[in-house]
Amino acid sequence: MAQLFHPSANTLAKASIVGGALLVALLGGIGWTVENSGYVTSQSVIREQPVPFSHEHHVKGLGIDCRYCHTSVEDSHFAGIPATKTCMTCHSQVWTNTEVLRPVRQSWATNTPIEWNRVHDLADFAYFNHSIHVAKGVGCSTCHGQVDRMPLMWQHSPLTMSWCLECHRAPEKFVRPREQIYNMDYRVERDSGRPEKTQAELGAKLVEEYRIRKDQLTNCSTCHR
């Protein structure tokens, strides 16, 4: 009986299997890269705002505490956006005629809130509470980055589920003393005010001191309600 397939068919079949596997892996890698890119997560994307507010100027330059503007960060799930009245506390006296602050003056004159564009926008199916994170020793810069070095605000972290789980699975790697929550330049070996000089030593004690229930942090209902 005549041979149905050329001898090279075996090589072609093996090459097709290997090539198919590599193609699947390549497509998977591309998908993972796109899914975790700033294009999807909005990480490092600067949002256009009605007023180009500089955290670098206000926080680092003037030394304004986070809580002066974000008044509800310790008591609510929402950190709060400052009312125009807060801005005018200073700007009724300084930079009173600058063009860049015209929207602020108009807002004050017409009693119309400024419509800021949200920078950190979690999906609706994810619940996040600022107050509980502050109470458990999570610093502002842990999630938001060094805002005192941002002339314009951008999203520092990807805000993906895997990123959240890094902390929820091992909070001892991230928590700090409560009095250092708003310190943008916090360093455990320098600023903790405690005998422990490494994050591993201090974090383990703070987890116990703050009664952080590690066994509950990875429950689905903790973030998805």
UniProtKB/TrEMBL annotation:
Alphabetical keyword list: Membrane, Transmembrane, Transmembrane helix
Tree of life domain: Bacteria
Transmembrane region(s): 12-34
InterPro entries to which the protein is assigned, alphabetical: Cyt_c7-like, Multihaem_cyt_sf
Sequence ranges assigned to domain Cytochrome c7-like in this UniProt record: 127-225
UniProt cross-references to Pfam families, sorted A to Z: Cytochrome_C7
UniProt entry tagged with the keyword Membrane: yes
Alphabetical list of PANTHER family matching this protein: CYTOCHROME C7-LIKE DOMAIN-CONTAINING PROTEIN, LIPOPROTEIN CYTOCHROME C
Protein name stated in the entry: Cytochrome c3 family protein
